[in-house]
Amino acid sequence: MKYTAEHKSLPVHKEGKEIYQIHFENDFEKLESYLSELDVKTKKLCIVTDSNVGALYAGTLTGILEKVCARVTVFTFPAGEENKTLDTVRNLYEHLILEHFDRKDMLVALGGGVVGDLTGYAAATYLRGISFIQVPTSLLAQVDSSIGGKTGVDFDRYKNMVGAFHQPKMVYMNMSALKTLPDEQFYCGMGEILKHGLIKDAGYYEWVIERMSEITERDSQTLLDMVEISCKIKRRVVEQDPYEKGDRALLNFGHTIGHAIEKLKNFELLHGQCVALGYVAAAHISWKRELLSTEEFFEIRDMNVGFDLPVSFSGLDSKDILDATKLDKKMEAGQIKFILLKGIGRAYIDKTVTDEEILAAVDFLNAEIEDENE
Ligand SMILES: NC(=O)c1ccc[n+]([C@@H]2O[C@H](COP(=O)([O-])OP(=O)(O)OC[C@H]3O[C@@H](n4cnc5c(N)ncnc54)[C@H](O)[C@@H]3O)[C@@H](O)[C@H]2O)c1
Ligand SMILES: [Zn+2]
């Protein structure tokens, strides 16, 4: 893997056939011509966005889309994971029905992962499926959620419990949108980026660590390189396994315990923060099995500090986290599908993780338990 970006559009394939392109741009200018290529002249387009992103970018985007399609409408819902629900999807269906959207029309997901997941799910199900494009505006959505066609919503606080695979027709990234992203959200994206290195590419992991100061200063060239490299890693994984029958599950590194913490904290902690805690826990299990050295394990943990991600939680019982982990949907025949590391950049699926191992890892993160290693 080369660690310099080529700044070209990236095609994504399924079963050897190109299905869409990921475009990396510094403004919205080229969206017009890329959309024209999708033959939208007679289509109605609905921009789906949240209250934060809509206030910043929906106006500009509407102006651009109006030039190339038949009509543009905007559906805005309140920002936040707590709104990634079937209730919001219901309101969106209602909007589409009232606006007479039919099968040939298209949705435009403008926002972070919440908007992308929800819009993709509505697109997968409205009239048995209409097309959509992704315009990801958070770092996390750019490097992770906008690529790969996994869509869905939370149900009764169970993360991503209802969903569908539905591929976008295009992913268009305006890198300059990251300028308005709050710091805390920016670092959540870093959680998923570090994850990419940890599971698949030790060289990239080192690359990110070496550029910590450029990244935290949001140097635009470094961010562009980083987003492109991360997209290539994610693309490689989803192309090899579009429906998560095998290796794609590696992307869930950190998500098994992470989702449990996210749910028990009632979404007070952000997704990327929970994932970062979750992968320290998974690394802990790997370390205790002597698959990672002590040095490697503590470097993984300490990188969270460098990128302003948590290394501990409080206010939760470790046993409750264990129980919630076992309720997560990544179970197969009663056994949790855990992602562990047998070295930096080398993740694998393990179905033999015991309750004791999970508890020890969670206790390590639990700020209220005297830490065995401090
Ligand atoms: N489908 C997948 O494969 C996949 C992968 C990873 C994560 N996810 C999902 O993604 C979600 C998390 O995504 P997220 O972290 O982007 O959360 P998010 O969509 O809630 O966005 C984070 C916050 O940043 C704001 N925001 C986004 N872009 C902005 C910008 N440019 N300027 C100012 N504010 C901006 C949003 O309004 C929101 O308040 C979770 O629901 C997670 O389950 C899905
Ligand atoms: Zn995630």
TrEMBL record:
Catalytic activity: 7-phospho-2-dehydro-3-deoxy-D-arabino-heptonate = 3-dehydroquinate + phosphate
GO biological process: amino acid biosynthetic process; aromatic amino acid family biosynthetic process; chorismate biosynthetic process
Any single Pfam family the record assigns to this protein: DHQS_C
Lineage: Bacteria, Bacillati, Bacillota, Clostridia, Lachnospirales
Residues bound to Zn(2+): E192, H255, H271
Main location: cytoplasm
CC cofactor: NAD(+); Co(2+); Zn(2+)
Organism of this sequence: Robinsoniella peoriensis
Protein name: 3-dehydroquinate synthase
Keywords, ordered alphabetically: Amino-acid biosynthesis, Aromatic amino acid biosynthesis, Cobalt, Cytoplasm, Lyase, Metal-binding, NAD, Nucleotide-binding, Zinc
InterPro entries: Dehydroquinate_synthase, DHQ_synth_AroB, DHQ_synth_fam, DHQS/DOIS_N, DHQS_C
Details of cofactor binding: Binds 1 divalent metal cation per subunit. Can use either Co(2+) or Zn(2+).
